[in-house]
């Protein structure tokens, strides 16, 4: 009886201690994530410009959402960016990692790793300002040097099609180092003996990649795809600084639209509604990825 | 037998090796050139900024662009603001994330699984969903246009809790058992055993948080309005808005001042930064 009682007391104390340890996080979580999330849902049923009292308008924001041609454009642009950025980053990062994982000189490897990785930790704003000048059609050095090798001038930032490509390319230029580093770590985790055994069995380079490297790297690739998706859906800084969303609406993203709706035109309810659509899209795609992953991701 | 086949692997066809070398070197040039151009332009004059071919060698004695920059906007102050905000957030996250992660890794309490899952799934909530309500909240709290409005909401991090918890779980429990027998409580085990053993994970979180908030543009753009409160990225956006292509030297001077501190830290702490980032990629 006595022991039972003290065990119960101990468990109770353990319980209280646990809650105390998570208290700071939980307070922040409730006040700054869950609370605002619920508020955003409530706001989506109101018209509110911050200066006059909020006005209940039922489902009007949602109706507008599906009629608003801007919404279609910005979601389309964002999806193009997501697709381009994630594919090129994961694919390119993997290729560079495979190249670096070969027997190359240590100094060369150090130079490659450092230079490919460095842009990742600099600010998008700074990078976008530099590239904005580099890509200037008449005065930029990119067109100048391309001209030297006979490539005609490209309207990097001024044609709607090319501006999208430019945003994607610079996003990739900036972040590919991260994908490379994570892939490299994944590659180095693959046991050597597997390759040695495969070689004894006479497997060629392509076979080694298809039957050893790739399957054992799928968890890494899956992780990168998920991270890449969630980040790419929130692209804001790059087009905001590089092209200001232009030309026209060509590079305007969902987050830029939320920013403008909420903080330039002070249509708080509608901004919240658009942001909820973004959330639903991200959540749905992430969950689908997790579902689909069971078919192709191989956990050791 | 094995050495034979391995030898074969070492001898890649020469032409392929050269091709690989050329492609990788071309990549290095593409990665480095923008930074070199940024630097040389910032030390140039407005007249030479757009000369083609560009002047690659910076004239380090020409500090005009920097002088102009510091005269026109308080850029050093922006650097201090960014540093202060990023540091406080980083310290805060190290504290809140490590205590919560410890609880989720080591303490049995009611609802721990549910709460952890809830926290994890909140990583899918994009910042933009909470930004409008946060903006309203900050105005209500009279915190609009203060650095506290940027700091308070991100003193916690679901990602940080996850990262640290995964690391704490890899620390063998035997280490704590002796201490536990001696009557040590959770606070002692957390501060004397778990934290000292978690250097790599803690530094990974610190590096990622610091860099993220040092470079962040979206929230400062919305929450700050007074010139003297700006952070580096907001200052850069303002400079561009005001002068656009007009004064590329001054703009590049500002960009250089934003990039150089990161470059210096990176060159010294590269190993830790790369290890830290790798750590987040391996579950």
Description of the molecule:
The complex is a heterodimer of chains A (about 300) and B (about 280). Helices cover about 75% and strands about 0% of the residues of chain A. By secondary structure, chain A is mostly helical. Chain A has 2 domains: about 1-45; about 65-295, MetI-like (MetI-like fold, Orthogonal Bundle). A two-stranded antiparallel sheet of chain A has the order 1-2. In chain A, helix 1 packs across helix 12. The longest helix of chain A is centred in the N-terminal third of the chain and has 42 residues, at about 1-45. In chain B, about 75% of the residues lie in helices and about 0% in strands. Chain B is mainly alpha-helical and about 280 residues long. Chain B has helices at about 1-10, 15-40, 65-70, 75-105, 110-120, 125-140, 150, 160-170, 175-180, 185-195, 200-215, 220-225, 230-245, 250-280. Chain B starts with a helix and ends with a helix. Chain B has 2 domains: about 15-60, no CATH class; about 70-280, Orthogonal Bundle (MetI-like fold). Chain B is globular, with a radius of gyration of 25 Å. The longest helix of chain B has about 35 residues, at about 250-280. In chain B, helix 3 crosses helix 14 (about 250-280) and helix 11 (about 200-215) runs antiparallel to helix 14. The relative contact order of chain B is 0.13. The interface between A and B is large, with 93 and 98 residues.
What descriptive keywords fit this protein?
heterodimer, A: 300 residues, mainly alpha, MetI-like fold, 2 domains, two-stranded antiparallel sheet, 2 strands, flat, B: 283 residues, 14 helices, globular, disordered N terminus
């Amino acid at each position: 009886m006595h022991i039972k009682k003290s065990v119960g007391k101990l468990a109770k104390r353990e319980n209280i201690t646990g809650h105390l340890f998570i208290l700071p996080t939980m307070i922040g979580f409730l006040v700054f994530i869950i609370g605002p999330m619920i508020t955003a849902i409530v706001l989506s049923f109101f018209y509110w410009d911050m200066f006059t009292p909020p006005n209940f308008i039922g489902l009007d924001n949602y109706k507008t959402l599906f009629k608003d041609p801007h919404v279609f454009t910005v979601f389309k642009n964002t999806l193009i960016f997501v697709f381009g950025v994630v594919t090129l980053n994961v694919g390119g990062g993997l290729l560079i990692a495979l190249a670096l994982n070969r027997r190359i000189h240590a100094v060369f490897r150090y130079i490659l790793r450092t230079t490919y990785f460095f842009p990742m930790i600099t600010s998008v704003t700074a990078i976008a300002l530099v590239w904005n000048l580099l890509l200037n059609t008449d005065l930029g050095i990119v067109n100048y040097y391309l001209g030297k090798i006979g490539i005609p001038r490209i309207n990097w930032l001024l044609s709607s099609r090319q501006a999208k490509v430019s945003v994607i390319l610079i996003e990739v230029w900036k972040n590919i180092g991260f994908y490379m580093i994570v892939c490299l770590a994944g590659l180095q985790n693959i046991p050597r003996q597997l390759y040695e055994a495969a070689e004894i069995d006479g497997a060629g380079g392509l076979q080694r990649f298809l039957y050893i490297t790739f399957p054992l790297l799928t968890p890494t690739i899956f992780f990168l795809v998920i991270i890449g998706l969630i980040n790419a859906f929130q692209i804001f800084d790059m087009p905001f600084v590089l092209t200001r969303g232009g030309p026209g609406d060509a590079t305007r993203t969902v987050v830029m639209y939320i920013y403008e709706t909420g903080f330039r035109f002070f249509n708080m309810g509608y901004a919240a509604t658009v942001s909820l659509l973004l959330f639903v899209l991200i959540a749905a795609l992430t969950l689908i990825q997790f579902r689909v992953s069971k078919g192709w991701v191989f956990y050791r | 037998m094995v050495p034979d086949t391995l030898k074969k692997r070492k001898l890649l066809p020469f032409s392929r090796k050269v091709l690989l070398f050329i492609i990788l070197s071309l990549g290095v040039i593409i990665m480095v050139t923008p930074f070199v151009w940024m630097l040389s332009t910032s030390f140039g004059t407005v007249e030479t900024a757009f000369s083609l071919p560009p002047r690659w060698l910076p004239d380090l004695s020409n500090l005009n662009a920097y002088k102009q920059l510091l005269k026109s906007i308080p850029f050093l102050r922006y650097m201090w603001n960014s540093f202060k905000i990023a540091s406080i957030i980083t310290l805060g996250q190290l504290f809140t994330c490590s205590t919560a992660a410890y609880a989720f890794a080591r303490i049995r309490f009611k609802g721990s699984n549910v709460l952890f899952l809830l926290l994890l799934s909140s990583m899918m909530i994009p910042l933009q969903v909470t930004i409008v309500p946060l903006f309203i909240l900050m105005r209500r709290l009279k915190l609009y246009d203060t650095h506290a409005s940027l700091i308070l909401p991100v003193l916690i991090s679901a990602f940080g809790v996850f990262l640290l918890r995964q690391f704490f779980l890899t620390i063998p429990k035997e280490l704590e058992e002796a201490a536990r027998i001696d009557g040590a409580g959770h606070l002692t085990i957390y501060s004397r055993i778990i934290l000292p053993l978690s250097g790599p994970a803690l530094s990974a979180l610190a590096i990622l948080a610091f860099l993220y908030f040092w470079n962040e543009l979206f929230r400062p753009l919305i929450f700050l309005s007074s010139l003297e409160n700006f952070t580096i990225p907001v200052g850069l956006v303002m400079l561009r808005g005001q002068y656009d292509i007009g004064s590329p030297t001054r703009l590049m001077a500002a960009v250089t001042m934003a990039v150089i501190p990161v470059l210096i830290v990176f060159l010294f702490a590269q190993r830790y930064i790369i290890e830290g980032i790798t750590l987040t990629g391996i579950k």
